[in-house]
Queue: 2 jobs
Job 1
Amino acid sequence: MPRAPFRRKSGARESNQLVRLAEGLASSKSRAEDVYWERELEKAVTAHLENNDEEAINRALDKAHDSPENTFDALADMVESLTESVLIDSELGRQRVCLFAAPILVWGRAKIPTKTIPKQVVQNLTVQLSAHVFSSKAKVSIVDYLFAPDQLPHSYSESRAMLDTLVSSLRAKTALSVDTKTVEDAPDVVCDMRMVIGAFQVPEGEPFYAWQEMTTPVEEARQTCLANWRAQGGAAIQPMLVGFPHELTLPRTFFSACRDADLASRAYSIGASVSYIEAVTHTPPEKLTAIIGGCWGNGIEEYRIGFSLGDEEDVIHGTIWPLVSDEAEDTPVPDEIEQLLRAAGVTHIITLDEQLPLEFCDDCGAPHFPNREGEMLHAHLPEDADTEGVQLH
Ligand SMILES: [Zn+2]
């Protein structure tokens, strides 16, 4: 994480002030009062971001969790929006520049690539994003690298730094080149996400997205844009993911695109797991047993889905369904998982009632998955599985 050389240590007083302003905004009852709190909160957060003082922001976000309802969201929204979006002056007048992500859900039998995007593909993607996702007023520039989520900026200041670099790329009408030596290794997992990252620029006050310029109801317009992006953007991405089934989700400003894709990936990984098992073990879905179990830390944290062959006790593969904060324990998540399994062709489904531990392998860190008896086991593909990966133990 880049640190400013003279970064001063921020005190509790500064965090308290951020929380106070966020609470004011969250509890305001009129647009007129909002304006005041928003302006003050924006000033305070901007100062911390510009000082590279991420600790104060993170401390305030921690505190905001214990504050009245919606305080956390008010603060997080402000921090994210000031991180991913900036106003600049240009000869064309005030311009809004925003960082965006175009996520791709993907699975594979071999290691899913992360790589430099060839020049021609950069050009195609930029054209398709301009045509189908962003408004007619938008200029678009992308980063010439297909990222795994672990390779994205890890902090608000790193994200902001990427946006600042893209502002220069937009001005120069070029893509942003990444030095591949600076990119971290991505983990080798069966089902993952890849991201195209970039920035768009619109004159202040103009629409960001193509669906804002349509006259059909908003959700319908958005779905039209997504369908067009999947067709045209998908064709542009295809050459980089040959042999890897994938699905494009809606490109949007950075944080919301990543969050939406995270949520979408949970459902995607269920179908992907079933397809993967079929591809490497030649077992059709109806010969599988899927076991759904809730794993508990302080409360229920995630569901883990173990897959076994027939009525065997070994677990051959598994996938995780992490819960997000607005999903209470009474949300029928297991029902949703069961529906997705059935849609993927799995007919033998067991939902365990017991509270399972959040267990991981001591050797490789892989999560354990429940079998039909409710035991948490390391997933091992059968020895004759047709996989290109290497099983560790
Ligand atoms: Zn292990």
Job 2
Amino acid sequence: MLCAAKSDRAGNSLRRKRHEITQPTQLIEFIAGLPDEARFCEAKFVTHIDPSPQAPSTTPITYPVTYTDIAAAAQRLAGQAHLTPVLTSRTVNQRTQNQVFFKCENFQRTGSFKFRGAYNALAQLSSEQRQRGVLTYSSGNHAQAVALAGKLLGISTTIIMPEDAPAVKQAATRGYGAEVVLYDRSEVSREALARQLAAERGGVVLPPFDHPHVVAGQGTAGKELFEQVGELDLLLVCCGGGGLLSGCAISAAALSPNCRVVGVEPENGDDVTRSFYSKTIQTVHNPDTIADGARTPAPGQVTFPLILQYVHEMLTVPDEALLRTMFFLWERLKIVVEPTGALAATTLLEGMIDQTNARIGVIISGGNVDLKQIAKYL
Ligand SMILES: Cc1ncc(COP(=O)(O)O)c(C=O)c1O
């Protein structure tokens, strides 16, 4: 069942529709069939996929990614990925009355944690797959990561990117040697375009988060943090489609079993939060947020069960708070952090974490920000 609600900028409801949708293609047709007014207003589609009634099962659930996979990914990444620094700040500790550890993936190769998952996945391709090349879709950071991993492993890469992706990310992706194909996100589904190009060119499609090898690679960021600072009471992780969150949560369960893991999304792109609390996959299309890495419409088939199993809570933060956090991190920690990369820190700095005297890990996930764009908010 799909419920679509559209509202104008003042929040007035323009129209409500309920449709029986069972296939992804029907959803695309439904969106394409909306009237022109949809182009001039904020459209937020919320899908609710009804769970089919299930008979109680006695078979134990097996998950597509385990800590063993993360440990194997860490070995593959040794010598390729940076061991990123953990920063601390007396100001933050005093302000929050906690001991806070910032795991700075903005210092990872390509400027975000995404290199971990991309390299781990590409390194496991067969020689036949490597010859066919890799195709992916991404608003930026996964794109740069796949491009660099491909360059290091001698695999050609094609990246499908929205034409409104930050210029800094487009340029960097081309700079790593990938071919960039731009698309209009309001007109074309990136998954459909990827399938079409893969059929034409014969490449292997690597999704940005919903793949076990990607999740395992991202989990090495959490593994490394626990190895650097020891056990934690709380781990805050930003979330788009949930690759980083699920991977880090698996590492937490293995290395710091009493640690609560909290995922953080932008308020307008709260698909995983809605899915988490309703226990069914919910979809939010084209959310209006500056956190471009968290505009993914829904958690995936791989990430969602892992999030339900290993994550304890989901929180959301508004864009204005993200900007405050970015400026705070620039001024106090002297680090450049992109809006999505500031999600987790924002919950802490805005007083949303009701905890004191705790050891808290915060993943700063990336630093690829178009400073000229952000300057207009100053
Ligand atoms: C900087 C940054 N942080 C977090 C995310 C979200 O990652 P995931 O989709 O694995 O949840 C992204 C995704 O692009 C990102 O670029």
